[in-house]
Recover the amino acids of this structure.
DNA sequence: ATTCAGCACGGTACGACGTA
DNA sequence: TACGTCGTACCGTGCTGAAT
């Protein structure tokens, strides 16, 4: 059902969110600084709009209906974004000359930086972003030392004092040159994958790749003839040979576009790469940091490499 | 918690007026 | 004549207090 936002009173979402938290009309009204009667009327309007009771009496409390539970998270997230946006008025991005440091592996840099810098050139032309290559356990200590402002990475574990915001999951894929002799009609078979010679990319802090772990579970191994600790030479090596490499889909799409390569789905399932950003609580309420985290999140949410290829 | 009556406030429509 | 601004009347919305 489509709603016209012009006709929708967005204050109702604040009331809904408060009802979810307080589980009572009187308590929610008190929290919002209105009388219980006004709150009851607000609930009536919410019920009309969503065509659902939303909250039903259960003992002394008003419990949410399934429809209310369905709405709760998206409404809370939207309100959180608005609150963050309103907090930003104390930081002037357009006039700022600040440098923000992101700790991330080099292939995340390739994924994030083109679109992030493009976004910043419009909204904060004086802001500088510095990519700091950190890996594995170093990531958290770099954050704690204040060497970086945020980390964009996969995290197996973070200490409780670090705030983590999971953003996306990504499949692993295989990257190779176009018209590769082992890849017929654009589909990569297990036989071809095992017959091919591979470059293994192993950034700092990642001893074994997810793909090799998934193969090992099947008692299989790919032929690794070259191991690289950095991302820089990968596109040229893959483009100029019959070597294949496996990596997260987002990075593979960026590389494929840059070096005119081909991305193929793996012929077996692997664990997904779970990407998140993390920051230290001391920067939690800092308007400049809040603003910068939003820019990073927005870039990731809108990024080209998250969209399905045509 | 719900409903109702009364009240305040803001938005909209419309006419009068001034200006280019 | 067209356009913008201002004042006024009307209406819808949301509030409070009281009754249920």
């Amino acid at each position: 059902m489509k709603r016209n936002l012009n006709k929708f009173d967005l204050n109702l979402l604040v009331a809904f969110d408060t009802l979810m938290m307080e589980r009572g009309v009187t308590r929610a009204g008190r929290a919002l600084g209105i009388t219980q009667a006004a709150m009851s009327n607000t609930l009536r309007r919410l019920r009309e709009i969503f065509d659902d009771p939303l909250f039903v009496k259960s003992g002394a409390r008003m419990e949410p209906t399934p429809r209310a539970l369905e709405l709760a998270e998206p409404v809370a997230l939207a309100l959180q974004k608005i609150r963050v946006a309103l907090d930003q008025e104390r930081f002037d991005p357009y006039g700022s000359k600040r440098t923000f440091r992101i700790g991330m592996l080099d292939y995340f840099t390739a994924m994030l930086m083109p679109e992030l810098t493009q976004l910043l050139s419009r909204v904060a032309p004086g802001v500088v972003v510095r990519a700091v290559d950190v890996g594995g356990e170093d990531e958290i200590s770099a954050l704690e030392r204040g060497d970086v402002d945020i980390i964009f990475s996969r995290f197996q574990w973070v200490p409780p004092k670090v705030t983590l915001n999971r953003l996306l999951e990504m499949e692993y894929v295989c990257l190779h040159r176009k018209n590769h002799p082992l890849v017929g009609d654009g589909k990569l078979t297990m036989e071809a994958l095992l017959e091919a010679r591979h470059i293994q990319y192993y950034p700092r802090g990642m001893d074994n790749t997810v793909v090799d772990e998934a193969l090992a579970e099947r008692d299989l191994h790919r032929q690794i003839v070259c191991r690289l600790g950095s991302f820089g030479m990968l596109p040229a090596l893959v483009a100029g040979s019959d070597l294949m490499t496996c990596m997260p889909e987002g990075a593979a799409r960026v590389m494929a576009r840059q070096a005119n390569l081909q991305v193929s789905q793996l012929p077996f399932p692997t664990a997904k790469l779970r990407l998140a950003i993390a920051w230290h609580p001391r920067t939690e309420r800092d308007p400049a940091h809040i603003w910068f985290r939003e820019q990073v999140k927005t870039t990731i949410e809108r990024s080209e490499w998250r969209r399905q290829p045509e």
Chain A has a mean pLDDT of 81. The radius of gyration of chain A is 24 Å. Residues 116 and 236 of chain A are 24 Å apart (CA to CA).
